[in-house]
Amino acid sequence: MTYEQATWRKWLYALYVYILIIGSVFVPHRWIGVKDFVQANALHSYEPVGWALGYLFGDLPKFRLEVVSRNLEWWICLPSRPDIDELSSLDSGWVQHLRHTVIGDANTRLLLSAYCLAVITIGLIVVLRLSPVYEVDTRRKVFHFMMVAMFAPSIYVDPTFVGLALSIVLAIFLLLDLLRASQLPPLSKPLATFLAPYVDGRDLRGPVVISHIFLLIGCAIPLWLSLGSLPRSGTGYLEGWEVPTREVSMVAGVICVGLGDAAASLIGRRHGHRKWLWGGGKSLEGSVAFALAVFLGLLAAHAWLRIGGWPSSTELDSLGTTASKAGFCASMASLTEAVLTGGNDNVVVPVVLWTCAKSMAI
């Protein structure tokens, strides 16, 4: 087989794979159709594309006018106008008041999306500027701080939207890395080139680059667990897509991965001289930094819950009680991170921190 023939065969195979991917998502099918599965099991039989359009753009006046004038309400789900008197009587805090009565739920989601895109843009600029100067581990921690900047303030604002966004982004990451590992044109080379400066030894053990995937999973799992344990509300096409209460454990993954892991790595690598007795390379200094960062993160999350005025799923304690609970949770997470030398701590430790925060009712 000549080089030209091999190239043509590779492009034909890539086209075949792309057609299969698009077909499995959008082509209606009872068993393999992703769209049909989501429609039946998550959206109460509402069509996913129309549901998503209303979910994001339903509060824009021009969008609503176009939908109504073109008689597309059978397809695109428009949110009902809120009852101001009813909403104002609810004790839900000033952030919820702004979201429901001033900005609008759908517009709030657009603002959160724009905010996250701005953080990603700034983070990528910083990473590209650091690449020629700093080592791989320092550059990778920028992505950890990006996760904190994006999700720590926004999870309480609309937990279900953030949970949905994390699910979609995780699916996209898995698909893109599958294409990269399969060396399918035209996406494989640009993806491999972009990821190359941030790959460490763990990523070289197999064909899949796992670091960014496990970073995302570590941030998402505690939020998903909290959403699964809290009561749901909502009416119409948003039935089950509202969470009336909030809890600190929602942000356990962001705090653990974004703050704790980054602090442990940055401090441990530079000042970690005292190693744990059981080996594994973890240092006492790094573990202390991890615990301190998680402790401060839990206190900040508790303060944001109070400042925002969201109803809490548990009774809010005094500052001293909260600090003692946060210290215990941070210590347990730090000890787990120090002991866990063979597994991926970006996944296991957030679950441990979520369990502690949930059981301690921070």
TrEMBL record:
Q: Which domain of life is it from?
A: Eukaryota
Q: How does it sit in the membrane?
A: Multi-pass membrane protein
The record's comment on protein family reads: Belongs to the polyprenol kinase family.
Q: Which residue ranges run through the membrane?
A: 12-32, 110-130, 163-179, 208-228, 248-267, 288-307
Per the annotation, which location comes first and is thus the protein's main one?
endoplasmic reticulum
Alphabetized, the UniProt keywords read: Endoplasmic reticulum, Kinase, Membrane, Nucleotidyltransferase, Transferase, Transmembrane, Transmembrane helix
**What is the enzyme's main class?**
transferase
Is Metal-binding given among the entry's keywords? Answer: no
By what name is this protein known?
dolichol kinase
The protein's location, in the record's own words, is:
Endoplasmic reticulum membrane
One MF term in GO for this entry?
A: nucleotidyltransferase activity
Q: Name the EC number(s).
A: 2.7.1.108
What the entry lists under PANTHER family is as follows: DOLICHOL KINASE (PTHR13205:SF15), TRANSMEMBRANE PROTEIN 15-RELATED (PTHR13205)
